Amino acid sequence: MNSTFNITVNNTLEFAISKDNLSAIDLQQKSLNLLHVLHQNKSIDVELITADFIGKCYTIKVNSSLFVVKIETALDVLITEMALSLGETIAINDIKAPMPGLILDVLVKAGDKVKEGDYLLILEAMKMENTLTAPRNGVVKTVSVEKGKTVDKDQLLLEME
Q1: CA–CA separation, 49 and 161 (whole Å)
Q2: Residue in 146, 143, 100 with CA at minimum distance from that of residue 124
Q3: Fewer CB within a 10 Å sphere, N or C end of the chain?
Q4: CA nearest 135: which of 152, 154, 119?
């Protein structure tokens, strides 16, 4: 992985800075949240207003202007590309049969509010009862099966909204 930082300012300006360029910046810390920077023979005061270290997003004040700065490493970019970001989830709306079997009981109906982990229906497969649960909080939109019917693998059982 390379040692480049991708920086976005105010969700509009984007640029990359290498670790070497970053270490070449002439700066002095004046106080806990205030830095003095010399850049191209110009003196600049930079004040840290807010910091979200986990999200790597900072609000800084340069002279009298505020800027929102987001910093990403090469690893952050890779995690985003692979959709492995923390806090990001994919909403599951379709509940499908994990295997062929017989519907022993349907425990919900359209319009029911369910919480993650609530029992939705019971599927008998290979002489075992499998209770399918809600993958998230939501409302049952439609129920596509009835008690006593057989289902195939990947057959739609119910939809959530």
Answers
A1: 40
A2: 100
A3: N
A4: 119
94-146, pLDDT tens digit by residue? 999 988 999 999 999 999 999 988 999 999 987 888 888 888 899 999 999 99
Per-residue tokens: 8: 């976005």
Residue 124 tokens, joined:
């008998």
Cα 35 from chain centroid (whole Å):
32
Among 48, 49, 45, 50, CA closest to 63? 45
Provide the residue type at 138 as one letter: G
User: Looking at the DSSP assignment, which residues form a beta bridge with residue 70?
Assistant: 8, 57
Q: How many whole angstroms separate alpha carbon 136 and alpha carbon 77?
A: 28
pLDDT at 83: 58
Look-up of token digits 């979200």: 52
pTM of the model: 0.47
Encoded amino acid at 93, one letter = N
CATH label, 94-160, candidates 3.20.20.70, 2.40.50.100, 3.30.420.140, 1.10.10.60: 2.40.50.100
| Average pLDDT, integer, range 75-88 | 64
End-to-end, the C-alpha distance of the chain in Å comes to 40
- Cβ atoms of 28 and 42 within 8 Å: the answer is no
